[in-house]
Design goal:
- The protein is α/β, with parallel strands linked by helices and about 550 residues long.
- It has three domains: about 230 residues, Rossmann fold, CATH 3.40.50; about 170 residues, 3-Layer(aba) Sandwich (Rossmann fold); about 130 residues, GMP Synthetase, Chain A, domain 3 (2-Layer Sandwich).
- Helices cover about 35% and strands about 20% of the residues.
- It contains 20 helices and 27 strands.
- The strands form seven sheets. A five-stranded parallel β-sheet has the order 4-3-5-6-7, with helices on both faces. A five-stranded mixed β-sheet has the order 12-13-14-15-16. A four-stranded mixed β-sheet has the order 2-1-11-10, with helices on both faces.
- A hairpin with a 5-residue loop joins strand 20 and strand 21.
């Protein structure tokens, strides 16, 4: 079978002069790479790596935000016969060291990063450092540009057996200590199915900004891009993100629910929700408004769009659908290279993650756990055969840890995590995820975490939508309290008695990766959130108010 490494060398040979990568370099400037120029740098770096005479299959880390050189470094690692180990660009020094030491990485590419001085102690002594362009000052590092200039390009076509170990991805840690998930070229190539489903073609454009250290970006973008060869644009920063998106005018686009919600909040900041609703009801005017909103977001050229990584409120999908942007949903895990289920854009799937992808088999265990057999199933956890055996059974089914149900049309509905269930003091079990989804369907809220183990009733910690947080004076607080009280009443009316929320606790701080309350893929770190606020719960429950504001 042809691997992604084979396909990218096909593009190098047949399309050397075609534009491939567009990288912002600051101040509104960009640097572009053709297939020929990018592969030339990757081959030169591969030549340097081979000069080190490392054992075949040595682990080499990439520690950087997404850049053109991230992809080139990965190619150089593969071309030289080694294994890439991506590291999330927001981890603490302790987590970085844990990954580098556990993987046995002998070299680390350090690229574009924020706050690197606090991370630098995580790079062990004895691990060679190579600084990519746009990297901060990296002590004792060799420079990418110098090494590329000094070494001739690796000659000839390089082939790697499909079953060769290609990468080790360390999971984001939402359920505990990171684990090294091993994937071969063959399991990674299972993501070619996304290219087929989206009818991807060389003329397409895609913006790369979700971490390349995560399976979603490597499966949906990197793997399909190496096969198809469409143009990739990179984002410069959060401050320039909208401009980066408008520069790319992507035809393919995917992101996580958290960012879809932020896009919506940005729209409401410029045009109040009620006004937008009124305009959308006016014939002819609504067409102009839809086009203006999507163009303002830089999404007016999108023809295939997906969301994933966490539950997406159905009302949010409907809202985008009314604007003319049909969003599909992808369900999968690092352990199966995201090849599990898909609800294609435009289909009748709201509330589900669709049906199995080609070659995938799904079953629901007696416990309600979703178990999946996939062509993307990992080789195993690095250095942990016991955990591998516990996670992938003798029949090849991956035990996902997610709970779900399949409807009569074969569509999978995620109902929460097996281990997220908690028991109230009344002995009743509560699944937080479906309740959180209902909360996030409200335009007033941006984040929600339902908790309540050993309490008589559950409650929810919530963070207001950005446009409300920015304009929250005393008068606005009264109005928002009324809105939240109405939301609480309406949501509780849909829940079983034991699930009904006692209170909404409104947090002042946003939950972010930086404050340790979100994983790098923007999932809730439920244990961290509960640990931070747990000591305050008894006090909150002494208050008579059902909407509690935290100062």
């Amino acid at each position: 079978m042809k691997t992604q490494l084979d396909f990218i060398q096909d593009h190098e040979a047949a399309r050397a002069g075609d534009l491939w990568l567009t990288q912002p370099t600051g101040g509104g400037q960009v640097k572009t790479y053709t297939f020929g120029s990018a592969l030339d740098e990757a081959r030169r770096m591969a030549s340097y790596l081979q000069s080190l005479s490392l054992p075949p299959g040595s682990r080499i880390a990439i520690f950087s935000k997404n850049t053109a050189w991230w992809l080139m470094a990965d190619l150089a690692i593969w071309l030289s016969g080694h294994v890439s180990v991506p590291i999330y660009p927001t981890l603490t020094a302790a987590s970085i060291r844990q990954i580098l030491e556990h993987s046995g990485a002998t070299l680390v590419f350090v690229g574009k990063l924020d706050g690197f001085p606090a991370m630098e102690p995580g790079l062990p002594e004895g691990v060679t450092r190579v600084a990519l362009p746009l990297a901060p000052p990296v002590p004792n590092a060799l420079q990418w540009e110098d090494l590329v200039a000094k070494h001739p390009p690796l000659a000839g076509r390089v082939t790697r057996p499909p079953d060769d170990l290609a990468t080790i991805i360390y999971t984001s840690g939402s359920t505990g200590e990171p684990k090294g998930v091993m994937h071969s070229f063959k399991t990674m190539a299972s993501a070619f199915v996304f290219a087929d489903l989206a009818h991807m073609k060389p003329e397409d454009r895609l913006l790369s900004y979700l971490p390349l250290a995560h399976v979603a970006e490597r499966a949906v973008l990197q793997t399909t891009n190496f096969k198809v060869g469409y143009q990739v644009f990179f984002a410069e920063s959060l401050d320039t993100f909208l401009k980066d998106l408008q520069r790319a005018r992507p035809t393919l686009f995917g992101t996580v629910p958290r960012l879809w919600l932020k896009f919506q909040a940005g729209v409401f900041t410029r045009m109040p929700e009620e006004k937008l609703k009124r305009l959308m009801k006016i014939p002819l005017v609504n067409r102009i408004v839809k086009k203006k909103v999507l163009k303002g977001l830089g999404l007016d050229q999108v023809r295939w769009s997906v969301t994933g990584s966490a539950p997406t409120p159905p009302e949010l999908l409907r809202w985008y659908g009314e604007l003319g942007l049909k969003i599909g949903e992808v369900y999968g895990m690092t352990e199966n290279w995201a090849i599990s289920h898909i609800a294609e854009p435009g289909g009748d799937h709201v509330g589900t993650v669709g049906v199995t992808q080609p070659g995938v088999t799904c079953r629901i265990a007696d416990t309600g756990e979703i178990q999946v057999k996939s062509p993307g199933t990992m080789l195993g956890y690095y250095k942990n055969p016991q955990l591998t055996a516990e996670t992938v059974d003798a029949e090849g089914f991956l035990h996902t840890g997610d709970r779900g149900e399949v409807d009569a049309r074969g569509r999978l509905r995620i109902t929460g995590r097996v281990k997220e269930l908690f028991k109230t003091s009344k002995g009743k079990y509560v699944a937080p995820a479906p309740i959180e989804s209902q909360l996030l369907a409200r335009g007033e809220l941006e984040q929600a975490c339902v908790s309540g183990a050993n309490l008589a009733q559950p409650f929810a910690l919530v963070v207001l939508a950005e446009h409300l947080r920015k304009a929250l004076g005393a008068e606005e607080k009264v109005q928002v309290t009324k809105l939240l009280q109405l939301a609480l009443t309406q949501i509780n009316a849909k829940l079983d008695p034991h699930e009904q929320l006692e209170k909404l606790v409104v947090m002042r701080e946003e939950w972010t990766v930086d404050n340790g309350l979100l994983t790098p893929t923007l999932k809730l770190k439920r244990q961290a959130i509960e640990a931070r606020y747990g000591p305050n719960v008894p006090e909150w429950f002494t208050l008579k108010e059902t909407i509690v504001w935290v100062n």
